[in-house]
Design brief:
- It is built from 5 helices and 5 strands, in the order αβαββαβαβα.
- A 5-stranded parallel sheet has the order 2-1-3-4-5, with helices on both faces.
- α2 links the parallel β1 and β2.
């Protein structure tokens, strides 16, 4: 999907909980800094990273999206395109997570079509932080 119009983006940015698949503990990586920015903007950022037991941003870090007990509004993905189909399957098993946002450089047309056919809004190859700053003037 192309980037939604600004009114739709405003509605997306009024949501509260962002699950971040591939959230990093390394402050030099975008997969750390972008979720940290969203956390500092007041969002409930739920990190997903099976390679660490460390809490990120003071939050419990989960191995997969299936383990998260709370409602998820947005799924922000920082994983290579080759992993998107299996990640999309996990996301689509949930009844929430209606917004799926793949970061800059990440896209997968088949997985996107599948998610959109199930009523999900999918944004590909766009930076969540850049769009948040643009829409909210931060």
């Amino acid at each position: 999907m192309d980037l939604p119009n600004d009114a739709t983006l405003r509605n997306i940015f009024n949501l509260e909980t962002i699950a971040v698949i591939g959230c990093s503990t390394n402050p030099s990586k975008a997969a750390h800094n972008i979720p940290l920015y969203m956390h500092k903007q007041g969002y409930n950022v739920v990190p997903i990273n099976p390679n660490t037991t460390e809490n990120i941003f003071g939050q419990t870090t989960y191995d997969s999206i299936a383990e998260i007990p709370e409602k998820i509004d947005i799924v922000n993905i920082f994983r290579p395109p080759s992993e998107i189909p299996s990640l999309m399957e996990e996301i689509l098993h949930r009844n929430d997570s209606n917004i799926i946002w793949m970061q800059s450089g990440i896209s997968h047309m088949e997985a996107t079509k599948l998610a959109e056919s199930q009523g999900r809004v999918v944004i590909q190859d766009e930076c969540l932080m850049v769009e948040h700053r643009r829409i909210t003037n931060h």
